# Entry
Amino acid sequence: MMAIPLPPAAALGLVALALAALIGWVRRHPAPFPAWLVPMLESRLRRRFMRYDQLVASLALRPGMHVLEIGPGGGGLTAQIARDPCGVSVTCLDVQPAMLARTRGAVPPAVAMVCGDAARLPFADGTVDRVVMVTVLGEVPDRAAALRECARVLGDGGWLVVVEAMPDPDYLPAPQVRAEAAAAGLVQTGHEGPWYRYTLRLARDGGATAAPPTLPASEAPCDT
Ligand SMILES: C[S@@+](CC[C@H](N)C(=O)[O-])C[C@H]1O[C@@H](n2cnc3c(N)ncnc32)[C@H](O)[C@@H]1O
# Structure
């Protein structure tokens, strides 16, 4: 068979088209990220852009807080939260048992593991201070229910922190997350980062102030 040589621009165009088709398909069929690809999530390259230390610092953790991480993946962020000197209690919830097994291997034994769906959180109303979702929301088939559940479990002054980053095929733009969160009764109280890698902070509409607590230095026990 005779091979027909493709000019480089046409080859590039074909690759771009194939990628766009793949991304389109993934967005129409949301599915959990495969556990066997966890090394990609925890790769050094990704860690350079996904700064867990900065994210944990921005959570303004205080002693006694309950942090729920939905979709912890390889557990890199969970481990960093659990190591925070504040001594918060941490729960991980993931829909895939295989993913939770990966998380378990990376985090301290005190971290609680729950297998479940973000759209049906097995926690009582108002019992969580921080819900964290890093590149997770786009994978959840019923995002509206998941956002309503986050609003329900958040206590007064609680935050939902959503991180979205390209080139995740499930990436959701900030205006879309903001609009869907608003429909679930959550309002934006913070937004950091450029459009392709951003962190949104949301709080229950009409709930207690969600601004970072301004404590006198002597009462800021976690700044070690
Ligand atoms: C792309 S991974 C992100 C992992 C981690 N947050 C990170 O950024 O490295 C998405 C995670 O969300 C979980 N997930 C997907 N759909 C979910 C759902 N409906 N409920 C709970 N977890 C879900 C997946 O199993 C996976 O652990």
Summary: Residues 209-224 have pLDDT under 50 and may be disordered. Residues 32-33, 41, 70-74, 93-96, 99, 117-118, 134-136, 139-140 surround S-adenosylmethionine (CB under 6 Å).
